[in-house]
Amino acid sequence: MEDRTQQEQASPEVLRRVRASFGSQGLMSHLGARLSHIAPGRVHIVLPSRPEVTQQHGYFHAGATSAIADSAGGYAAYTLFPEDAEVLTVEYKINLLAPAVGDHIEAVGTVLKYGRTLTVCRLEVFAVQDGRRQLVAAGQQTLIRVNRPAQ
């Protein structure tokens, strides 16, 4: 699935739904995160470096790193869901592999197993400095598909 989704683009309707949902997330807006790639089963989120998202040593804070990883996985799953469904994280685990320092970090969520109720995603976060990428966090996530509330 990984090679295919690197080049594939989500449909215009899925792009619209993902962008609208992402735009309504207060935390992603507060952090300054943005969507950089949306494909079936794969989403990238970029977070630029700035003092508000770092910890006391100047590295990206683990909370910011984890938050964009969680959202990248959630939206990767969401790209495969029907229009009347929403996504919620059931659990995730993340390993911080190296201090995250760079111009920005990029979270990549990739669907490993899509299911009718539960979906499992791989989470990766890369620190990017002068075009060089270093894996700084890796994890796995389980998501649940829920029906969109009636409006």
Describe how the helices and strands are arranged.
Blueprint: H1 2-7, H2 12-23, H3 26-31, E1 34-39, E2 42-48, H4 62-78, E3 85-96, E4 104-113, E5 118-129, E6 132-147
Antiparallel strand pairs: 1-2, 2-4, 3-6, 4-5, 5-6
Q: Could you explain the architecture of this structure?
A:
The chain has 151 residues and is α+β, with helices and mostly antiparallel strands. Helices cover 27% and strands 42% of the residues. It has helices at residues 2-7, 12-23, 26-31, 62-78, and strands at residues 34-39, 42-48, 85-96, 104-113, 118-129, 132-147. Strands 1-2-4-5-6-3 form a six-stranded antiparallel beta sheet. The chain is globular, with a radius of gyration of 15 Å.
Number of helices: 4
The strands making up the biggest β-sheet line up spatially as 1-2-4-5-6-3
- Structural class by sheet pairing and helices: alpha+beta
Beta percentage is: 35-45%
Give the helix level as a range of percent: 25-40%
Distance from N terminus to C terminus (CA atoms, Å) equals: 35 Å
Average pLDDT reading: 94
**What composes the largest sheet?**
6 strands, antiparallel
In short:
This protein is of the alpha+beta class and 151 residues long. The protein has four helices and six strands.
Key phrases:
151 residues, alpha+beta, 6-stranded antiparallel sheet, 27% helix, globular, disordered N terminus
